[in-house]
Specification:
Length: 322
Amino acid sequence: MSKKKVLVVGGTGYLGQHLLQGISEIPGTPYDAAFTYNSFPPQSLLDAFPYSLAFNVDLKTGLGFHSVLQQFGQPDVVVNCAALSVPRACEKDPDAATSINVPTSLVNWLSSFTQNGNTHLIHLSTDQVYEGLKSFYKEEDEALPVNVYGKSKVAAERFISENWANFAILRSSIIFGPQTVSPVPKSLPIQWIDDVLSKGDKVEFFYDEYRCPVYVKDVMTIILTLIDKWLSEGKKMQLLVNVGGPDRVSRVQMAEAVAQIRGHDSSLIKPVSASSVDRGVMSPADISMDITKLVRTLNFSPTPFEDGVKLTLAAEASSRST
């Protein structure tokens, strides 16, 4: 019996790499995996996953998807991790944000299959679809984003729900955890906090912006659970779910957790209001999320923030010593 095929769109990114690693570690390797990349695939990533095919795909135009079909075949599951996710970059170039973040070319490609609907699409959205005026947003709360990034992700959710009948949309908070096989260029939140506090200088952190950061391996587990659910049950789904950790924390509280675990001087943490800094983009104040639906639907409880920080820092220490 042929293995089921899983395509990770945006496989060179932070979540994409962790997902490829998670797939490769499943006992018995039940899936054939492939991934797409935008510019070039790092050699260290190709070396780490030698059995995963890599495809150059332009998400704006869809150029490259034809090669996926020819060489890999119709995927049973597509996980879309690709995004222009830096809010300031989206603000500067709204057209690029829309053309990358709304998966028009991807869904059009899926629609071209003769066995239409037999592919399950798992799409990563964001907590930034919420306005940020209250705590613990539920999925049925109105999406009223305050910046271009959030608006492009709302547009993506609508496009998928109107044009594809078999999907799971994951509204993810800040994803944190260990570095990837091929280190990503962006700074990772816990590692960045640890690094700046270790230098002994005072650092400003916002006390009035709240999120529910989620441990990367939890997101990976959620995605793998959804893949297994579709492949074992074969029931099409239209799922929209908040994916966050169980704790609502500010940037100050994130920094305090890192300081406590690593033994840094907590007096270096200088609480400031988010309104005191011009970041060139509007940012929602409180987009903490209610994750009751996630816990009930998938029977899964995400890792508490402090435990995730400990796991992250332990993994970093381990990678430095090898």
